[in-house]
Amino acid sequence: MFNVDAANYALSRQADGFDDFLSHDWRTSRFSKLCTLLVVYNSRAALLAAFLACPLIALGRTVGALPNDRPSSCLVYVVHLFVLCCWQRLRSILRPPIMVFLDKLCIAQSPEQAELKEKGILGLAAFLNHSKRLVVLWSPRYFSRLWCAYEIAAFLTDHNKHKQILIMPVHAGIAILLAYFFSSWMASSLLIVLGLLRHGALGVQLGQDNIWTVALGAMLWVVVPATLVGVPFSTLSVRMANHLHRVPKQLKTFDVQSAACFCCANDHKHPDTGEEIPCDRKLVYRKLEEWYGRPTDTDKEHLQRFNSLVHHRLGRAVLRQMPHAVPTAPFLCMLGAAPMPWLADSIERMLWRIQVDEDACDRCELAYYVWAHVFLEWAFVVTMIFETGLLAVTLSTVAARMFPNIRHTWRLGLLVFTLFVVPGAVLTGAFFVLLWTADTAWPPTIVFVLALLLGLCFLRPTLTNHRLAGAIEELEDAADVTPTATPQPSFSTPDADHGSIVRMPSGVSVWSGGFRI
């Protein structure tokens, strides 16, 4: 964990200001942070790319450039995942990159760069004041780390009420990706299996005698992989909800003097080389006294003043932003990509129908086909994906609050998985049975409307909960604590280096990290 390679600092360049300031706990998994940052910065662009790819895939199937079968529509997932992972590079071709401050690369860490490190620590507030937004990758140990507390303290010195803070549970990225893979597998498998069961309407020709064999194989094909992905998703959601349930107590008992610091924990010696490490705590306390101290203070009143600020102002902001284990806004962006193969297939079927009915002698029949066999199917699948996803998040939050001390979280995860899968399976089965057997489109339409109303019931409380979980929220001004000093340095014009990485004049730098919105 303690990698202080001096070459890391060379990755930075100069900049006038920052779009985002990343605050994180160093001990948390880098993979978790990567997944969360991909979801935060790239999910919207990936969703748009998947949407634009649907008509192209449908056209390719129609003209014969792609195999004219339903699995070809699943190529939209390739487009979505490519943009999700690479949008930070693609964006630089179209727009300027997002400039992000990352302390591990932007503040010198090696013992040989002790002077630069001191400048970086002392100038942290100035750089936060020139950041448009603070992005907190929250973990259960976040508020117990001195560096994290210091970054929060520096951010709270700014009197600009329009400053924004985004709080993301650091493991939310993995949970959202698991939900995406679960929903994508369910949507694509349902698309392919239903094509097979239509007796040649779309896909492989099957005889009546093979119906039950195909149905049994289809259930195994769909259910087993979905369970292997869905149960970990629900378990992780319950675990995160359980951690968030303890946040109020963490904030209420926060004490900067008890916050852990790597240098103090290792007796100010490098764990590998044994070299002396400068004490970060002394520098942090020095800045806290400068910001929150008063001439009449006799002891450590400035530290208590900062503790009070965290208890009240930060506590309100955190609790309003984190009502659910999985932040809703990026969660919906990722879920929105899951039914995209259905959209591509629907467009292809409309094009196919138009080609078949070139005379267009019966427009009513064409309109009925589009409604009953194209739009209604796609709209129902989209509704069910969002409904089951929101239901899973809601159940995870409720389960964690009802059983906060449960030892084996996977049991609650399995229960949550069952509770959100069974209603979805019942509604889906009823919808498609009625769609195939009813003489009119009214029975499946009624099931669709019922599913839509249930989905709105789960979505409405989330949207009306002040702000979306994980969405940007303005911090309230602290009337009880007023910082005594907020440094405002001047910045020079940035060096041109493809606009990706920047360094501050005082020795502290900003790193784009390759992540851009």
TrEMBL record:
Per the record, the gene is GIP
Record-linked InterPro entries? Toll_tir_struct_dom_sf
Q: What is this protein called?
A: GIP protein
Q: Which residues cross the membrane?
A: 34-58, 70-90, 170-194, 214-236, 325-344, 378-400, 412-435, 441-459
This chain's source organism reads: Symbiodinium necroappetens
Q: Which keywords belong to this entry?
A: Membrane, Transmembrane, Transmembrane helix
